[in-house]
């Protein structure tokens, strides 16, 4: 009876996973970060003769998705004839046609301004609070204090007796495509604390929206793949062939140019940031999971992340691993880590580098690949632990928010014959196959 219930629960879990993954096909949300979003807020805090002053804030609520160089870019379309009189903490890329202004010349007159963050070395009079990090935003789970950015704008040229309307068609590049923003809506004015927290003050009005990421819209080729190995089998399961593209160059040459680089090819291929080392998977990044050893109460894993880019360092990398073993006490030796609350049966661990140790995942040189690694000690839960059926391998891995291509379950390193686990779980195979198939479906168009 207990077995039957158990089996039913398993089927239920499988169906839920399938449904959620189906959902992510049409991009409802990321099942491992269902509440992730960028929230953009316009807080109007002062009226002017012909307009208002507002503080605009971009908050990254994604647990493990950060905004890398060259930084975020925010855009919108003015509904009326608004102009920006001045700006602090960011810049508008175009001034536009301000020829109808005679004495005071606005800062920007374009109908669809594009806003970029300032660099940290900007002059103090152009800065504002919480600005000027070159558009970089950290992931919420890793560094919430650097996960948002603000700037101030003075908006004018409104019609008589108008308080202005929210800008339309907000767009966010962070830094690439893939983000969709809803309309800016009137919400309760933002409240903040004053006088040491004893008094609440509020802005005049607040417009707010959220922007969410969809890999489907980003239409990126995969950037990462997973390889596996164990102490009990000499076979190394490498990344699936052509995970991120196929070799274009001659097999004998040292380098090939990745597919994504073609539009941005510069005259000097040596400085092309998309140049990756020639491999059978052509992925710029590989995550390797090696099951090192087996103790009575613990098992040990080595996690290695390799950067095959020739001209690109990752300074804010993070890796997300879904594996049921993380439900138990885990010791991570050389990375920072936290466990994220996730659904289903498996826990999700987020890893990132330790400053001055391995925070920088450097690029590959001629004969040396850039890599970072850690060992970890995972406690055995005697009710579920097994080496059979690929249990010891991760279910899903993301590199800086992007899904990594997993090998097919039937290519996983097998236990040698005669070693039989007491805790074999046949349905696990089905689960792994399903996870693989759905991820294949997701990535299908690029393979
Ligand atoms: C955006 O993220 C925040 C924090 O996780 C959450 O409270 C909010 O509900 C999210 N908004 C939407 C529209 O998903
Ligand atoms: C600039 O705007 C003015 C008034 O709105 C218009 O008359 C003029 O043609 C515009 N100039 C250009 C180059 O678009
Ligand atoms: C800084 O502000 C000054 C005066 O407001 C302006 O002339 C200058 O272009 C600004 N610099 C930047 C980088 O925005
Ligand atoms: C703004 O978005 C709406 C709906 O998405 C669209 O119909 C409209 O054409 C857009 N406006 C501009 C100026 O792009
Ligand atoms: C990457 O980092 C290494 C070591 O810090 C440095 O020598 C190299 O110039 C960097 N490469 C790029 C493209 O920034
Ligand atoms: C994890 O290990 C620490 C110390 O090694 C111990 O204090 C803690 O109770 C353990 N937690 C669990 C859930 O076993």
UniProtKB/TrEMBL annotation:
UniProt keyword Ion transport, yes or no: no
Signal peptide residues on this chain, from the entry's feature table: 1-28
Entry similarity comment: Belongs to the COBRA family.
One GO cellular component term noted in the UniProt record for this chain: plasma membrane
Record-linked Pfam families: COB_C, COBRA
Annotated source species: Rubus argutus
GO biological process: cellulose microfibril organization; plant-type cell wall cellulose biosynthetic process
Membrane topology: Lipid-anchor; GPI-anchor
Subcellular location: Cell membrane
Name the record gives this protein: COBRA-like protein
Domain of life: Eukaryota
Residue ranges constituting the COBRA C-terminal domain according to the UniProt record: 224-413
């Amino acid at each position: 009876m207990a077995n039957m219930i158990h089996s039913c629960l398993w089927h239920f879990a499988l169906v839920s996973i399938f449904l959620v993954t189906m959902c992510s096909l049409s991009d409802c949300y990321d099942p491992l970060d269902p509440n992730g979003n960028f929230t953009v807020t316009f807080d109007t805090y002062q009226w002017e003769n012909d307009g208002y002053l507002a503080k605009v804030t971009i908050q990254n609520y994604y647990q493990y998705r950060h905004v890398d160089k060259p930084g975020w870019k925010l855009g919108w379309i003015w509904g009326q004839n608004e102009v920006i009189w001045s700006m602090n903490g960011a810049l508008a890329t175009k001034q536009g046609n301000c020829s109808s202004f005679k004495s005071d010349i606005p800062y920007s007159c374009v109908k669809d301004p594009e806003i970029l963050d300032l660099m940290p070395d900007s002059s103090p009079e152009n800065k504002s609070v919480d600005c000027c990090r070159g558009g970089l935003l950290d992931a919420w789970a890793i560094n919430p204090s650097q996960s948002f950015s603000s700037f101030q704008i003075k908006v004018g040229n409104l019609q008589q007796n108008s308080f202005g309307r929210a800008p339309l068609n907000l767009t966010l590049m962070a830094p690439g495509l893939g983000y969709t923003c809803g309309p800016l809506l009137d919400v309760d004015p933002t409240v903040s604390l004053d006088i040491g927290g004893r008094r609440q003050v509020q802005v005049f009005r607040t417009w707010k929206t959220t922007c969410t990421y969809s890999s489907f819209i980003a239409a990126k080729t995969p950037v990462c793949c997973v390889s596996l190995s164990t102490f009990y089998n000499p076979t190394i399961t490498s990344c699936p062939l052509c995970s991120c593209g196929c070799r274009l160059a001659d097999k004998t040459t040292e380098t090939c140019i990745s597919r994504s680089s073609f539009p941005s090819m510069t005259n000097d291929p040596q400085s092309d940031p998309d140049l990756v080392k020639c491999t059978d998977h052509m992925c710029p990044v590989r995550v390797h999971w090696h099951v090192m050893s087996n103790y009575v109460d613990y098992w040990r894993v080595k996690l290695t992340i390799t950067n095959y880019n020739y001209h690109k360092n990752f300074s804010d990398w993070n890796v997300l691993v879904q594996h049921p073993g993380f439900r138990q006490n885990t010791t991570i030796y050389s990375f920072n880590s936290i466990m994220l609350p996730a659904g289903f049966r498996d826990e999700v661990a987020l890893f990132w580098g330790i400053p001055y140790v391995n925070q920088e995942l450097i690029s590959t040189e001629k004969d040396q690949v850039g890599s970072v690694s850690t060992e970890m000690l995972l406690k055995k839960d005697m009710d579920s632990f097994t080496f059979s059926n690929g249990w010891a391998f991760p279910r899903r891995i993301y590199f800086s928010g992007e899904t990594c291509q997993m090998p097919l379950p039937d290519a996983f390193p097998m236990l040698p014959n005669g070693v039989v686990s007491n805790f074999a779980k046949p349905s696990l195979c089905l689960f792994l196959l399903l996870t693989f198939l759905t991820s294949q479906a997701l990535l299908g168009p690029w393979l």
